[in-house]
Structure formats: C-alpha cells, structure tokens
Hints:
Blueprint: H1 10-22, E1 36-38, E2 50-55, E3 57-60, E4 63-69, E5 74-86, E6 92-100, E7 110-119, E8 127-135, E9 139-148, E10 151-158, E11 163-171, E12 176-182, E13 188-194, E14 206-215, E15 219-234, E16 242-253, E17 262-272, E18 276-282, E19 288-292, E20 296-301, E21 312-320, E22 325-332
Antiparallel strand pairs: 1-15, 2-5, 3-4, 4-15, 5-14, 6-11, 6-15, 7-8, 7-14, 8-9, 9-10, 11-12, 12-13, 16-17, 17-20, 18-19, 18-21, 21-22
Amino acid sequence: xxxxxxSRKGCVMKRLLPVFFCLLLFCSAAMAQLNGSDDFxxxxxDPSKWSIEESGLNEVNxxxxxxxxxxxxxxxxxxxxxxxxxSQTRDWSITMTAVNTSTPAxxxxxxxxxxxxxxxxxDDRDSFGVLLGASGDDGRxxxxxxxxxxxESEAWEPLTPSTATLRISYDASTGELSSEYDTGxxxxxxxxxxxxxxxxxxxxxxxxxxxxxxxxxxxxxSGQVYADNFQAITEPGISNHVSFVSIGHARNxxxxxxxxxxxxxxxxxxxxxxxxxxxxxxxxxDEAISITxxxxxxxxxxxxxxNRFEDGNYTxxxxxxxxxxxSTVISFxxxxxxxx
Length: 340
C-alpha cells in the first residue's frame, strides 16, 4: 500500500504525545491497576477519569466526537485516562468503539481516531496505538503506529466498514502489546510489539489516551468521527498463570512407642503455565524457598527443622519469562491452629 497522508502522520504523533503526557505525571505506580469504563452518555466529561489535553474531542450526543476546522497541517484532540494506569505485571486490555465516516477526497488529507498507550518513563518517545482512519489516497484504513526512542513504525490495512471495535492488550508474561479490531466477526490482529526496548523500570506504568486527528486542511464535522464505549480491564493476575498451590507441613514419627523420635517434613507443589520461570515462597520467619519451573514445580524437605515453616502468611513471588514479577499472600495453618 502506498504511503498516504494518513501513514505520514508520524510527525503529528511526535508533537502530540509530549503535550498529552506532561499532564499525566501524577498517575503513579500506586494507581497501576487499569480498570474503568465510560459510555459518554451523560455528555459531561468525568474529571476523575479524563483530562483534556487538546480540545478537538468533545463529549456530545452520547459519544466522544472529534471535530476539526480544516485549517492547518494537522489538528488533534486528546483525552488522557487519569483514573489509573496499566501495570507491567498484570494482563490488561483497553477497548472502544471507533466510527469514522469522513471521506477525504484530496490526496494527502486524512482523519483518524483511536487508542494510544505510552511508557510513563519516556512519554514523548515510546508509544503504541491503534487507529481507524480515512485517507484521500487509500480510503478507509485500520492500523497501528508505534515508536521507540523516536524511531517510528506503522502498519495499515484497508477496511470497508466505517465502524470497528479497537483493542490494545498487554500480556505480562511476554511483555507484548497487541492491537486488534473487530467489525462484527471477531477480533483480527493488526500487530504485536515487544516493549522490552522501552527500558521500563519496575515502577513504570502504561498511560492510556483516546486521540482524534486530521491533516492537510481536512475538516471533520460533528458526527463523522467519534469514540464510544471505552473500557479498561485488568485481568486477575497470578491466577491467570498459576492453577494449583499446595503447602504441606508435618511431623514424621518413626516409632509409635517413641513419640520423641521424629522429624519435620515440609512440601510445596505448584502447577503453572510456561510463562512462569520461578516461584519463591517466603515463610513467616522470612526465610525463602525458591523453585524453578520444570513443568510441575515441587520441593520436599525431610531435613530436621525447627520452626522455619510455621503457621502464618506465606508470600509467593512469581517471576515471568520476560523478567517481570508479582506477588500474593497465602495463609497456611494447621487444623488445630498449632504448628506441628
């Protein structure tokens, strides 16, 4: 496909993103559990969810409309999601309905609306988006735009319908962002992108935005280009990848006539998928047991022990194949409440 006015919009995005994310710096790692939705039906922006970064988007007619005057090389509107942010250690997705009925007729003119995700640590140079566009050169298009340290890439394909559900999802086990679209027959993939080159620190997160764009003096009227039914979902996390955990702790008596002759036995068994490479259990006494994935994690100990493995909360830390990790807590106690 030839490079249309739409595909040449990389310069637009480079100017767009710094403005947008300078205003989202307060969206901290403590808020990194991406969840929420907005159907835009009340025609009033919810300030607890959205920050208006550029004014081309307006919540009217029960949707989020993009309009432009048709004067200038590019016009844009940006709403940044400020309620929370995407985590590196949890699977999450964002979706919205996108409509683009505009019909640019002049070569080089274009319009688009879509979703964007940006690295909080490098917000003006690391980004990934999915867009429903229209071009005076190539007609209706759906595609992705992504950037790492100022190096831009894109992928576009023709699309007949003017309405599509757009989705960006993140897989914590692989560290990949994926873009997809659905016009009624199920999701089709646009592209996937490995964020390992974004050099994100452990506390860095993913910011989210809805953007509307037009270029080369193309005017967009009310009702031609809009977003609706935004939704962000974070998956349950460890439970997506760990299907079974068993902790056992007992005394093994050698002779029924010699109750003082015994030893402690401790066992841990875990079943996971292939995305997890290691699990560490930290006992209530702050001692750690580490198990490497061999398909079915298992460790047993019959070494005489003191009180290393007593009743209490065991912290479980899982490490994924992409180096990310997350933790949860499992409470362990004997039926009578007394450590063996």
